[in-house]
TrEMBL record:
Keywords: Amino-acid biosynthesis, Aromatic amino acid biosynthesis, Lyase, Phenylalanine biosynthesis. It comes from Gimibacter soli. Pathway: Amino-acid biosynthesis; L-phenylalanine biosynthesis; phenylpyruvate from prephenate: step 1/1. The keyword Amino-acid biosynthesis applies. The record marks T179 as: Essential for prephenate dehydratase activity. It catalyses: prephenate + H(+) = 3-phenylpyruvate + CO2 + H2O. It comes from the Bacteria. One of its GO terms (cellular component) is cytoplasm. The keyword Iron does not apply. Its EC number is 4.2.1.51. The lineage of its organism: Bacteria, Pseudomonadati, Pseudomonadota, Alphaproteobacteria, Kordiimonadales. Residues 11-186 form the Prephenate dehydratase domain. Signal peptide: none annotated. This is prephenate dehydratase.
Length: 286
């Protein structure tokens, strides 16, 4: 387990309780940094903005459940920069009080995404799913509640933190279940090593005209730039202006990426660069 947060310059913030998957990701990526649990994604971002933490570890998408809600809207307005990424394998466990038996269990609580990722396994056990704000928070809740009929879906780390029994390991329906995290900082990556494969993330708003998205993205095709992710969302209550989040391989120091980004800026209302950072090893060996 990571050390207690006492030095902000050596602290990484995450959303959730101790034992959350974000905590596991933070510890795996930065084992020597102290971990700072935060109630919400907003709080984790604020901890970095206000200097309570040097970095934040934020989940952005899951291979089974898709994108993490609200993150695409929070990142552009945070004023923070993506400086790294991390892929964390998610191995859900069914946790219960040590004194409870399998026959005692009637219900299971966890974050709605975790419940969705274990839907078939939970149904096969005849348990009733009840959403909770956080996976590790669910583990903490059953440890404090003392109800032998309620289990939690959370991590092995959460079982250790809250003294629970692992009823079933690898509960997830898909064995490849993985969450992609981004690491955020107050400043963009200093002196990036462009000798290694890089990623660039950004958001943009298209003009409300026919073929706006086609024109905006044309430069990436003609300049042979690989776009690995493109998602749309609405930033306000208006349905007339679509915002898009995108990840591309490369950086603007590359001639083809520079040309593609120039064309994007010409055909859009605005582009917000979120960060340029090294590709995670999973991408380079996949």
């Amino acid at each position: 387990m990571s050390p207690t947060a006492t030095d902000p310059s050596n602290t990484i913030a995450f959303q959730g309780e101790l034992g959350a998957y974000s905590h596991m990701a933070a510890t795996a990526k930065f084992p020597d940094m102290a971990a700072l649990p935060c109630p919400s994604f907003d709080d984790a971002l604020e901890a970095v903005k206000k200097g309570k933490a040097q970095l934040a570890m934020i989940p952005i998408e899951n291979s089974t459940a898709g994108r993490v809600a609200d993150i695409h809207m929070l990142l552009p307005g945070s004023g923070l920069y993506i400086i790294d990424e991390h892929f964390e394998p998610i191995r859900h466990c069914l946790l219960a009080l040590k004194e409870s038996t399998d026959a005692d269990l009637k219900a299971v609580i966890s974050h709605v995404q975790a419940l969705g990722q274990c839907r078939n396994a939970i149904r096969d056990r005849g348990l009733t799913s009840m959403p909770f704000y956080d996976t590790a928070g669910a583990a903490k809740e059953i440890s404090e509640r003392g109800d032998k009929s309620v289990a939690a879906v959370a991590s092995q780390l959460a079982a250790e933190v809250y003294g629970l029994r692992v009823v079933k390991a690898d509960l997830q329906d898909q064995g490849h279940n993985t969450t992609r995290f981004v690491v955020l900082s107050r400043s963009p990556l200093a002196n990036p090593d462009f000798s290694v494969p890089m990623m660039t993330s950004f958001t943009f708003e298209v003009r409300n005209i026919p073929a706006a998205l086609y024109k905006a993205l044309g430069g990436f095709a003609t300049n042979n730039v690989n776009m690995t992710k493109l998602e749309s969302y609405y930033e306000s209550d208006s349905f007339t202006a679509s915002e898009f989040y995108a990840d591309i391989e490369g950086h603007e120091g590359m001639a083809n990426v520079s040309r593609a980004m120039e064309e994007l800026r010409f055909h859009t209302k605005r582009v917000r660069l979120l960060g340029t950072y090294p590709q995670a090893r999973l991408r380079t060996v996949g």
